[in-house]
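Exercise: predict the structure of this protein bound to NAP.
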Amino acid sequence: MSTVPSPLLGKVAVVTGASKGIGASIAKHLAAAGASVVVNYASSRAGADQVVSAILSVGGRAVAVQADVAKQADIERLFAETKAAFGQLDILVNNAGIYDGEPLGQITEESFHRHFNLNVLGLILTTQEALKSFGPEGGSIVNISSIVSTLSPATTAVYNATKAAVDNLTRTFAKELGARKIRVNAVNPGPIETEGTHSAGMVGPFQAFAAITPLGRIGQPDDIAPAVVFFASPASGWITGETLYVTGGLR
Ligand code: NAP
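Solution:
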């Protein structure tokens, strides 16, 4: 008889932006590893409910919580509802993020602030609020960064800069939070086929990356989630402040 490993049994995780794409896969993988999961979303209630149903249908525990994680009041409510549902917090996955491509000449104040308000300020405010809920045993924070933080592809300068900031925040917060036994790591995906990249018209252009990727294809959300489970679990207990590229070898 085979047994399914449950390294996260008894743990509680919040995944921001989990109604679709990479976040939805992360929520399902964390639940499969035993965690109770808060599936956060901004507007896609139906998507979040589908993720929760998928988790419940295989005996897992999950709830959906709406919150715009670029807004302080929503973030406070997200963690209050997490506490009400599951009573504790052990894992935070800062996944919610946006990516619009503009060449230099088309960058606007509005698009700069929209990207930085969610991808950087939202991550900071969410992490700050989560600190009030982590217990004395500490926990794990996983930031979803991107290969663009160092590959720096043309026409996505603002997005690239937000993810370079995420890498730096990951290293800094790891130093600040080590004394509380809270580890902070980043997973940096390569090009991934998601609802978001489909609606942005990016999946076609991604094929150019597939051609120069050693493993010969672009990624799927399920390629990313296991790395997040690793950083959330005791198996990575001596790792903090790291960025793990999950890109099929593309650098
Ligand atoms: P996606 O398919 O567009 O999904 C985005 C998710 O974030 C949705 O659940 C969305 O919820 C949520 N969200 C958006 N704004 C939010 C807000 N203000 N508050 C709370 N949730 C919000 O995106 P994805 O492609 O999976 O990307 C997820 C993360 O991976 C991002 O941080 C992205 O930068 C990073 N990443 C993606 C790729 C890629 O190629 N896809 C590569 C590297 C890194 P609603 O649907 O409710 O709005």
